[in-house]
Design brief:
alpha/beta, 13 helices, globular
Amino acid sequence: MNPLVSIVCLCYNHGRFIRQAVTSVIRQTYSPLQIIIVDDASQDESISEINVLKQEFPFLEILLLPVNTGNCRAFNSGYKLVRGEFVVDFATDDVMVPERIEKQVRYFQRLDDSYGVVFTDALYIDSDNAVFRRHFDYLAAKKLVTRVPSGDVYRDVISRYFIPSPTMLSRRKVFDDLKGYDEDLAYEDFDFWVRSARNFKYAFLNEALTLIRRKHTSLSSGWYRRGDAQLHSTYLVCRKAIRLNRSPEDDQALLKRIRYELRQSVFSENLQEARLFFELLKEIVKPGLTDRFIFTLSTLRLPLSPLRQLYHKIRFGA
């Protein structure tokens, strides 16, 4: 028999898109599926859409949270209902290709138990379902990746971004070992990658099996604004990684990330995080002249955000 796959569908103000998202799950070529919809106290028409879907598809499991808790807590609430051997964290504004789950499960069945996650390529769509980018083609064109890491990806995930998290299918054991998402964080994927990749391998399936919806064409749109809670969460995950590192090579990979986040903190005028990342850097290595120069810029309180925005517009079209 096929193993049960549990899909936790997270909704927050996705009223316009939730029917398309959920039906793309229902129409998967794979079975059996457990489909759990968690609404995180939406303020739009999402709940009425969910109720209609429940009437049409009584097998859907529905959890309506009374107050907004954020993605990490909302997922953990839904995870308590999970019964499957494999798990997907799925946003209800994204869309699954019909063969997605079947292809990922079949790929998993070719791997040994050391593998905890299978991820794939993805296409990005706008609010009108128009495709405007393929994930790994874009990263390659911008020279952000030269290859897609697979296997032991711990140093890769602590040093740079490359995984489109909505594409992941994970063994339930991974979430059980991690005890779900860290609810103290503003976002979940970086922490999940770091903690899970320390003990589990990742496999890449080179097909675009998920359509990820973006309001803006920039992959980083909304990041690195002043007072960005996600940036502080990134710092907290980097601090965790120091404890997880086992070798000088691990430390060098983490330093790459810390230096990147230090620059982003300084040039986005997130001064507290700039100080925190600089202190974190000093726990691993003696700061070089460039490190000290960049940090000194933050102490001058210069209006650097427009400069960063201009650079990203030229570099990434952001």
